[in-house]
Amino acid sequence: MHETDRKLLDRLQGSFPLVPRPFAAIGGELGLADGDALQRVARLHREGLIRRIGPVLDPEKVGRVGALVAMSVPEDRLEAVAAAVSAFPTVTHNYQRVPLAGSCPYNLWFTLTAPSHDALAEAVASIEKATGLPANVLPVRRKFKIGVRFDFGAGGASAPRAAAPRGAETPRPQDFDGLDRLILGELQDGLPFVPEPYAEAAARLGMSVEELLGRLAAMIQRGEVRRFGASIAHRRAGIKANVMCVWRVPPEALDAFAREAVRFDAITHCYERAATPEWPYNVYAMIHGRTQARCEAVIRDLCRLTGQTDHVALLSTREFKKTWTRL
Predict the structure, then answer these.
(1) Phi, psi of 309 (to 5 degrees)
(2) SS3 content of the chain, % helix, strand, coil (to 5)
(3) Closest Cα to residue 241, out of 311, 300, 296, 307?
(4) What distances in angstroms separate CA 145 from CA 54, 232, 271, 282, one per listed residue?
(5) Active-site amino acid positions
(6) E-assigned strands of 248-290?
(7) Whole-structure pTM over 0.85, yes or no?
(8) For residue 214, which phi and psi values (nearest 5 degrees)?
(9) CA 79 – CA 100 distance, rounded (Å)
(10) Rounded CA gap, 67 and 11, in Å?
(11) Per-residue CA distances from 18 to 102, 172, 283, 322 (Å)
(12) Cα 170 to Cα 182: distance, rounded to the nearest angstrom
């Protein structure tokens, strides 16, 4: 990969500029000729390295609830069941995972979001009916880390947290409202790769670009939008190994374990989830690396640092679906 492309991928994962011509702004930061950044980013999207540039939402803060679900699927039905699960619009991620260490009764893992706990339960029931298989629902109890950012070795620093552009209107009221929801709905499929990508959404909403950007900045600052930037197809970019490791950690050791886990750059997500009698693990860490060996080294280091060794490591072998929380 060209060094400039690496720099762009590093930069685009941070706060995408909230200015009318963001690609020109990024080009200026990286010393690129006018229009070069846009052309390169559009090519990286065509090549499948960039999934989209848009808002990454905090589901709870925009009125959604979610859960991780595990299923035990007969091998000869796996593709058919995975396709049936992926067809549900509430499902955002769907993977086959196989154990690297320990044993696991589940081979299909998916996440879903819904407008309420009742709607979530209904969605799970519908999936069980469609597949004829029981689902083990594993809701989040605590979030320790959510920070998907891949290092492409270009030495790029994270972009500053997005702020309202100069001259932008301060949105009133300050709470998340219906217009904010409409803005996110317009942007959820990603920005177009044009010089002024916010203009089309603003025009459709009947507002100025400055008002749209001001409201978007406020949503980032309040936390409804965790970040606004590029979603990277990490496997295509060479970060091919993805391991979900689950631990059974005693309650009195949980905080200490989490403090160590969040320090690892390779761990992008770390949660406490509800344990069940058939699956007693309560801490989940998503680990990404260029190789499986690198992910396994992170697990060994975390076990050594915390003294917590009761774990199961699950390698993601197939990605059936990966999308984003939609409104």
Answers:
(1) -120, -5
(2) 35, 25, 40
(3) 296
(4) 20, 18, 7, 15
(5) 93
(6) 267-273, 283-289
(7) no
(8) -65, -45
(9) 21
(10) 30
(11) 46, 19, 36, 26
(12) 17
Report yes or no: 138 and 273 within 8 Å, Cβ to Cβ.
Answer: yes
How many degrees, rounded to 5, is the angle at CA 110 between CA 105 and CA 113? Answer: 140
Task: Please classify residue 228 by burial: count the beta carbons closer than 10 Å to its beta carbon, then call 0-12 exposed, 13-18 middle and 19+ buried.
Answer: buried
Contact 111, 66 (CB under 8 A): yes
Distance between CA atoms of residues 324 and 34, nearest Å: 31
Residues 174-198, buried b or exposed e (16+ Cβ, 10 A)? eebeeebebbbebbbebbebeeebb
Alpha carbons 317 and 259: distance in angstroms, whole number: 29
Residue with tokens 């905080």: 255
Residue located via tokens 């917590």: 308
169 closest CA partner among 123, 225, 215, 238: 215
Name the DSSP class of 276: B
Helices (H) and strands (E) in the chain, counts: 10, 11
- The token pair at 192 is 């177009």
Cα separation, 160 vs 104, whole angstroms: 41
Within the chain, where are the H helices? 3-12, 22-30, 36-46, 78-86, 117-131, 178-187, 199-205, 209-222, 254-261, 292-306
Is 94 within 8 Å of 320 (Cβ atoms)?
A: yes
Q: Cα–chain-centroid distance for residue 203?
A: 28
What the block records as the tokens of 128 is 């069980």
pLDDT tens per residue, the chain (327 residues)? 789 998 999 899 878 999 999 999 999 999 998 899 999 999 999 999 999 999 999 988 998 999 999 999 999 999 999 999 999 999 999 999 999 977 899 999 999 999 999 999 999 999 999 999 999 999 999 999 987 665 665 444 334 333 333 334 444 446 889 999 999 999 999 999 999 999 999 999 999 999 999 999 999 999 999 999 998 887 776 778 999 999 999 999 999 999 999 999 999 999 999 999 899 999 999 999 989 999 999 999 999 999 999 999 999 999 999 988 877
For residue 49, give the DSSP letter. Answer: S
Q: Which two tokens stand for residue 257?
A: 């374990």
